[in-house]
Design brief:
CATH architecture: Up-down Bundle
Number of helices: 5
Order of helices and strands: EEHHHHH
Radius of gyration: 22 Å
Strand order of the largest sheet: 1-2
Oligomer: single chain
CATH topology: Hypothetical Protein Ta1238, Chain: A
Number of domains: 1
Shape: globular
Mean pLDDT: 86
Number of strands: 2
Structural class: mainly alpha
CATH class: Mainly Alpha
Length: 214
């Protein structure tokens, strides 16, 4: 059980912060950027959930609630470098989480019309919120790949503090962005369907100048 007895600690005032293995690192560390983006993605989904209460059925709301919990676990995963030995078993994203997202994508996508155009991130307020969450999740995925490129995916050897990043975290975020795209389309079914992109819709003909008469 997590107990937060004090909100500010002043331990980060020099630009340093702690990882879950109690090591210290810069706040600009790719790991920190990755799980900070995951936190932002979770917050964006939270906004969408607040808009979804009168729009989505109980099953879909439960799915989004599960995803928010998953993202907290995923953040804990990113904050704990891979190691060969742990004093306590850490939270890690599992392959079954990715499988569950793929099943959800297939389930909701089955009831949608086939896409014949790119779509704009809009429509209902809920759909717009889900699209916004999708883009933040995409950024979190990119940040996670940056951390993977920096630290690799191998566990640290005993006595070393250079553990890698769980590859499944990046895979989960990739599938989640796809699911949020599908759910945004699903949210728009009752609001006129997809808002389609019209290439060069902002193109305007130059106005004709009136002929000057003397």
């Amino acid at each position: 059980m997590v107990k937060l007895t004090k909100i500010y600690t002043r331990t980060g005032d020099e630009g340093m912060t702690g990882l879950s293995d109690f090591s210290r690192t810069r706040k600009t560390d790719p790991r920190i950027e990755a799980y900070a983006d995951v936190d932002e993605a979770n917050s964006a989904i939270g906004v969408a959930v607040s808009l979804a209460r009168n729009e989505f059925d109980h099953e879909t709301l439960q799915l989004l609630s599960q995803i928010q919990n998953d993202l907290f676990d995923l953040g804990a995963d990113l904050s704990n470098p891979l190691n060969e030995h742990y004093e306590y078993e850490p939270l890690r994203v599992d392959a079954v989480w990715v499988d569950a997202l793929e099943e959800a994508i297939d389930h909701y996508n089955a009831g949608l019309s086939k896409l014949d155009s790119f779509i704009l991130p809009g429509g209902s307020g809920l759909a717009a919120g889900l699209h916004l969450a999708r883009t933040v999740v995409r950024r979190a995925e990119r940040a996670t790949w940056h951390a993977i490129e920096t630290y690799g995916t191998e566990p640290a050897k005993k006595g070393h503090n250079d553990g890698g990043v769980n590859l499944l975290a990046a895979k989960y975020l990739n599938r989640l962005s796809d699911l949020l795209f599908v759910l945004a389309r699903y949210a728009n079914i009752k609001h006129g369907g997809d808002v389609k992109w019209v290439p060069a819709a902002n193109r305007r003909e130059r106005p004709e100048h009136p002929t000057r008469t003397e």
